Amino acid sequence: MAGKLNFSLVSPEREVFAGLVDQVDAPGVEGDFGVLPEHAPFMTALREGPVTVFTGTARRVFTVKGGFADVNAEGLTILAEEASEVAAA
Amino acid sequence: MASLKEMRSRIGSVKATQKITKAMQMVAAAKLKRAQDQAVAARPYATKMAAVIANLSAGVSGDDAPKLLAGTGSDQRHLIVVASADKGLAGGFSSNIIRAARKRIDSLIASGKDVRVIAVGRKSRDQLTRLYGKAVVKTFELSEHKTIGLPSAQPIAELIAEEFEEGRADVVTLFYSQFKSVISQVPTAKQLIPTVVDGGAEPIDLKGAVYEYEPSEEEILETLLPRAITTQILAALYENQAGFFGAQMSAMDSATRNAGDLISALTLQYNRSRQAQITKELIEIISGAEAL
Fold first, then answer.
1. What confidence tens digit (pLDDT) does each residue in B168-206 have?
2. I need a labelling partner for B270 at 20 to 30 A (CA). Which of A3, A34, B15, B288 fits?
3. Which of residues 180-209 of B touch A (CB under 8 A)?
4. pTM value?
5. Which domains does chain A have, with CATH numbers?
C-alpha cells in the first residue's frame, strides 16, 4: 500500500480541509481528474463542481467554485475561491 | 473653588464616561479575538498562493510573462490604495496609515509622477478627498458589508484590475496596517502590481519531475494573478481589522485608566473641601458657644 496523500483545501477565508487521505477527485477545466499518492507534479485551473475526498472507506464531498489545484511532491493543494462541505448524502 | 454640588456632578460624569470607555474596551477585546482568528485562518491561502506564484513565475519569463507580473515597463502612473478603518476612537490607527500613504504620495508627486488614489475606509476617504480631491478615483466603505470577507475585497480588486488594464496605472501600491500585536500595528506599503514574487517562498523540490499544466502555464498565471491581488487585499483588510480593534482596545484602556485617575483626584479634592467646610462650621459653632 502506497503512502497517504497530503491534501489541503483552502479558501480565502479559511482552511476548509487538511489531512492525509487516499484519493481526491476534482473537477479540472479540461476534465475531472483523480489524484492518488505520489502523483506527478501537475497544476490545473478548476471549474465549479464537487471535490471528493476518499479516506479508507469514508468519503467527504466539497463543492468548490473557481480555483486551482497544485499537485507536487508535498501533496495536493486546492486553492478555491469558495469551498464548502456538502452534507453527506 | 467649585461648590460641592458641582464637584459631585463632575465626578458622576467622569464615572459615566469611564463606564463607556470600559465597555468599548471589552467589546473591542471580544471583536479583536474574532478578527485575529479570521486573519490567522486566511493565512494558509495567502501563503500557498505565494508559493504557487513563485513556482509558476520561475518558469515564465521574458515577453511571455503577463503584464501583471512583469509590469508595463514604465513607472510613471501610480495608483495608491489606502486602506484604513471606518471608525475612530482607536488612537492614531487610521492617521498612521494615512500619514505613511501621504508621505509616499507627496514624494511621488514631487518627483513628477502621476498619482491616483483609491480610498478604502471612511477615515482615509475623509482625509484623502480633502487633501487630494480629484486624484481620488473611488472610495469604498467597509461597513457596506456586515463582516469583512471576499465580497469586501473583490470590488476593490476589480477596480484595480480595470485601472491597470485601461493603462491608467503602471504601479499599484497598497497601504494598510500590519498587525504585529495588540499594542503594535505597523503601517505597511505593499506593491500589488507588478506582482512581487516572494523570494522567501522556496520553489518546491520536484525531484527532477516536470510540472504538467492544464491549460498552459501562461493561462494559469493570467487567471491566478488577479486572484492573488484579491487575496492580498483581503489579507490586508483582515490585518487592518485586527489592528483596528487592537488599537481601539489599548486606546480605550488608557482612556479608562485616565478616567480612573481623574476620578480619584476629583474625589480627593471633593473630600478635602467637604472636610474643610465641616471644620469651618465646627469652629463657628464652638466660637459661637464660647462667646456666650
1. 888 899 999 988 888 888 898 988 888 776 655 555 555
2. B288
3. 204-207, 209
4. 0.82
5. 5-86 (2.60.15.10)
